[in-house]
Amino acid sequence: MANGFEQSPQQAFYVATNGSNAGQGSATAPWKTIQYAVDTVAAGDLICVRGGVYNELVTITQSGSAQAGPILLQSVPGETAVIDGTGLPIPDGQYGLLTLIDASWITVQGLELRNYSTASTANVPIGLYVTGAGTQIRLIGNHIHDIHTTANGCAANAFGLKVDGTRAPQSINQLSIHGNEIHDLTLGCSESFSLDGNVENWEISANRVYDTNNIAIGAIGFEGIAPNPAFDQARDGAIRENTIYNISSFGNPAYGNEYAADGIYVDGGTRILIERNLVHHADIGIEVASEHAGRTSSDVIVRNNIVHSGNSAGISIGGYDSSVGGSLRVDIIGNTLFRNDQANTGSGEFQIQYHATENRFINNIVHAGTAGYLVNAFTTDSSLPVELDENLYWLDAGGQAAWVWQGVEYASLAAWRSASGQDANALFDDPEFLAPAGFDLRVQPGSPAVNTGINLGAGVVGTSDFAGNLRVMGGAIDLGAHER
């Protein structure tokens, strides 16, 4: 999916803090408020917002068009326009500093959105909010921070960026969220950045999300956001090349002292690709599950990602409890998991929970810390929750290797293989990372990971490794996220 449009703007208008809405909107007679600008321009127009602080809520209900081109709202190049929510209300109980309602052909680029907060569970502040239905929406290079709820409990919610597809069959589609920086959020029970309801054909790429107290990126379904349950899933999307770190719910009043915040969370989504992301120092690196009984996240590919130094599991599939949903047909291929479960939760590097069905875990490097848990399939609700093979396992000196199958712990690869019937071609050997102390998790030329994977086809393994190199070289594929 492209991250921009080809059309040149038909007309450029300007906004400045010292402008006047009685002016012409020109560079020499700019308008004063962003809201006046978005209400006044037409399809194909460009709104250039000069640097400065704008203490206003902005709502976009107009649309560009395929014929005339998008409406483009951006900071003047080299300057930063700041939408600051200090002291502003939260209309309708849930609103954004910048809100798009049933808008299409819109690009928002290079803005800073900050300082929007509540102390009430009745209000939900959002940095950038897209809702209703719409197409061809680009959110590029924005900086969102300091969005807070200080209320207690799981009725407290705030979001940095939120997309809700609230109509059916009309969806939010052809959506690109690229190159944004999102940080310093106090979220209660919500996500830093989420897609929910009837949202399809989307890409979340090259964003940086950090220093928040709940989930970084979520693709969600079955929450009743869309009026028709058949359309109530984020679907047919990609989460790629994002950098996510310092994500933890520990100390969040909604969770207490639980390590429950995911770097990337698919909760009821379907047909989603998660690739080439770096997630570190999160609670759970990547999780694919459903919080709704009888529902699943399905047909998800998790490939060529690096997850390290997490507090709990590196990658987790299946529902967190027997009363919720699970995961179906999730392929976890060619990832590198390194020294997760730093808080010694017992979750391990790869965790398999409830209602996991027809999943695969293949070609991964799994290097545990001294906690030692490599794979943890602790439930007994499925005789075959996942197929595992061609994985390379190792752990730090001083640890005791542990694999768990059907709730029983095994201390050797041979015992694990015998009990589970899995990992027939797995190895227990040092992957020989180049510089693990500095988290350079490429492998050395003589590593047992080199050329020992199984090529499942480009549709599964991808065409590029974590670093953008060819995923398959000379007909062979390496284990882990890097191809040598």
In words, what does this structure look like?
This protein has three helices and 42 strands. The protein has 484 residues and is mainly beta. It has two domains: 255 residues, Pectate Lyase C-like (3 Solenoid), CATH 2.160.20; 190 residues. Strands 1, 2, 5, 8, 11, 14, 17, 20, 23, 26, 29, 32, 33 and 36 form a 14-stranded parallel beta sheet that branches. A 13-stranded parallel beta sheet has the order 3-6-9-12-15-18-21-24-27-30-34-37-40, with no helix packed on it. A 13-stranded mixed beta sheet has the order 4-7-10-13-16-19-22-25-28-31-35-38-39. It is elongated and about 80 Å long. The two termini are 28 Å apart.
CATH class of the largest domain: Mainly Beta
Largest sheet geometry: 14 strands, parallel
Q: Would you count the extended β strands for me?
A: 42
The tally of structural domains comes to: 2
Structural class: mainly beta
How would the blueprint of this fold be written?
Elements: E1 12-15, H1 34-40, E2 46-49, E3 52-54, E4 58-60, E5 71-75, E6 81-84, E7 94-101, E8 106-109, E9 111-118, E10 124-132, E11 134-140, E12 143-149, E13 159-165, E14 172-178, E15 181-186, E16 193-197, E17 199-205, E18 208-212, E19 217-220, E20 234-240, E21 243-247, E22 262-267, E23 270-275, E24 278-282, E25 284-289, E26 296-303, E27 306-308, E28 315-317, E29 326-333, E30 336-338, E31 350-352, E32 356-357, E33 359-362, E34 365-368, E35 373-377, E36 386-389, E37 392-395, E38 402-405, E39 408-410, H2 413-420, E40 427-428, E41 433-435, E42 440-443, H3 458-461
Parallel strand pairs: 1-2, 2-5, 3-6, 4-7, 5-8, 6-9, 7-10, 8-11, 9-12, 10-13, 11-14, 12-15, 13-16, 14-17, 15-18, 16-19, 17-20, 18-21, 19-22, 20-23, 21-24, 22-25, 23-26, 24-27, 25-28, 26-29, 27-30, 28-31, 29-32, 29-33, 30-34, 31-35, 33-36, 34-37, 35-38, 37-40
Antiparallel strand pairs: 38-39, 41-42
